Each structure stands twice: as structure tokens, then as C-alpha cells.
């Protein structure tokens, strides 16, 4: 029998509005997470990305795997808007997903509105200080 602490990937198994953001993380569902997050129909997952400029195809794999479950992807790029490179945008368009990039604060607010409207939305949110 193993003893000690078991470390698991950060995951909240459900959809929840984002209650707060800043200080390097997010608050949702009476919990907090330090770092960036992916908000998907399968739940809210920790996302090991600290800068949108460093995002590559591998960082988007989970989003593309679940793309059939949502129509809109909001990408919070940090403190300021950074456009998504055309080839990344094309991957989502081919999967039938509309992508909107914006600063993280605007993405959080938009995500919460669309979630409240019961829209099929996902979000990839870069943590901000």
C-alpha cells in the first residue's frame, strides 16, 4: 500500500463560471488554480502555458480532441490581445470551431456570459498577474 500524497493533473470535472482571475491564477467553483486553464465541456483543466507566444500545436491538442463538443473557442492571451497564428486558427476552423482571441479579462467575461446562455463554448485562458 502506497503512502504519501498523490499528485494528479489539475482538473475540475464540470463546467463552471470563472469567479475571479489575476494574481497568476483563477477562482471557480469555490476553488482556485494557480496558472493557466482550459475550460472544456469535460471540465476545467490546468494548462501548462504561461505565455501565448509560446503556445504550439501540442498545447492545443486537448482542445482539438474535444472540438466536436463546442462551437466557440475563446482564447485569453494574457494582459493584451495577441492574434492567433493563421495555421492554428485553420485547425480549429477545419474542426468546425469559431475562434475569438482577446485579452484574458475580456475572454473570462465573455466565457461567463456564453456559459450562462448555455452555449457550447470552451476557453483557453492564460493566467495574468
Describe the structure.
Helix content is 21%, strand content 31%. The protein contains three helices and nine strands; from the N terminus they run ββββββαβαβαβ. The protein has a six-stranded mixed sheet. A three-stranded antiparallel sheet has the order 2-3-4. InterPro entries: MTH938-like_sf, NDUFAF3/AAMDC. It holds the Pfam family DUF498.
Topology record:
Elements: E1 11-12, E2 18-22, E3 25-28, E4 31-34, E5 36-40, E6 43-47, H1 61-65, E7 72-76, H2 86-94, E8 98-102, H3 104-116, E9 121-125
Keyphrases for this structure?
single chain; 129 residues; alpha+beta; Hypothetical Protein Mth938, Chain: A; 6-stranded mixed β-sheet; 3-stranded antiparallel β-sheet; 3 helices; 9 strands; 31% strand; globular
CATH topology: Hypothetical Protein Mth938, Chain: A
- Which strand-content bin applies to the residues? 25-35%
What is the CATH architecture term? 3-Layer(aba) Sandwich
CATH superfamily: MTH938-like
Radius of gyration based on Cα positions: 14 Å
Tell me the domain tally: 1
- Determine the oligomeric state from the structure: single chain
Globally, the shape reads globular
Biggest sheet: strand arrangement: 1-6-5-9-7-8
Q: Overall pLDDT, averaged?
A: 91
Return the CATH class. Alpha Beta
Cα(first) to Cα(last) distance is 41 Å
The major sheet is characterized as: 6 strands, mixed
Q: Count of DSSP E strands?
A: 9
Low-confidence stretches: none
InterPro entries: MTH938-like_sf, NDUFAF3/AAMDC
Pfam families: DUF498
Amino acid at each position: 500500500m502506497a503512502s504519501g500524497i498523490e499528485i494528479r493533473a489539475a482538473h475540475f470535472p464540470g463546467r463552471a463560471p470563472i469567479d475571479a482571475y489575476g494574481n497568476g491564477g483563477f477562482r471557480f467553483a469555490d476553488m482556485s488554480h494557480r496558472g493557466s486553464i482550459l475550460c472544456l465541456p469535460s471540465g476545467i483543466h490546468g494548462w501548462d502555458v504561461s505565455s501565448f507566444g509560446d503556445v504550439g500545436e501540442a498545447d492545443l491538442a486537448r482542445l482539438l480532441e474535444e472540438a466536436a463538443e463546442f462551437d466557440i473557442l475563446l482564447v485569453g492571451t494574457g494582459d493584451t490581445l495577441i492574434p492567433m497564428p493563421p495555421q492554428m486558427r485553420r485547425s480549429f476552423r477545419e474542426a468546425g470551431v469559431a475562434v475569438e482571441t482577446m485579452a484574458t479579462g475580456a475572454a473570462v467575461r465573455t466565457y461567463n456570459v456564453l456559459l450562462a446562455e448555455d452555449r457550447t463554448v470552451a476557453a483557453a485562458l492564460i493566467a495574468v498577474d
